[in-house]
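Quarterly update from the structural biology core.
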Amino acid sequence: IKKLFNESITIIDKMNKHYKKFNMKNNIFFESQNKISMTSLLTELNNFPSFKSNSKDSIHSEISKVNQKSSYKMIINQKVKCKIHFYFKNEDYSEDKLNENVERLSKIIYVFCNSFGNFQTEINNFNFRFLLIDFPRRLCLNNKQLSFDDLASLGLFNNSSGFTNVYKKEMVLSRNSGLTGLLIHELIHLLHLDFNFWEQNIKGFDFY
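Predicted structure, tokenized:
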């Protein structure tokens, strides 16, 4: 454990430097807030998450209540900028509550992209899309355990989920609970930290 910690010091120091450097006034710029229809919402989210049912207990029911989209431009550094979009039910988010989410999630993007972002072309003009709802979770129905096929047919969605498409420059993340961890998970894919880190040097870090 001591060896692992010692070898991680350069990474921790660099992330901490960018964490302290992040500033909402300098890095995040509000662009627009508009009403959004379900059809437009699903198009912008690349039809994710998918569903098969439109019952009142399904994921469809929660998505259909989303009626607002708020968009921001984010300056990661002098060469890289991106767009961040939040989709939510207007009655669930006061201005302060929305701003808390914007700052928390934007700071994670900023820290990771500046700490590990050797792939500037891929990150530049990227779209990060956050669906701020909670899906109904259910394991059983009438005392019967539900299979994955059952969950799909009922339109239930028991896990936080997201996807990253580096070619289209799109990341979609869903479900309030677990959103922070899910964003970090997808950033690891986007920045090639899952495989690339062990195959070649990352500028500014010791290779081990």
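Strands lie at 28-35, 68-75, 81-88, 126-131, 140-141, 144-145, 161-165, 170-174.
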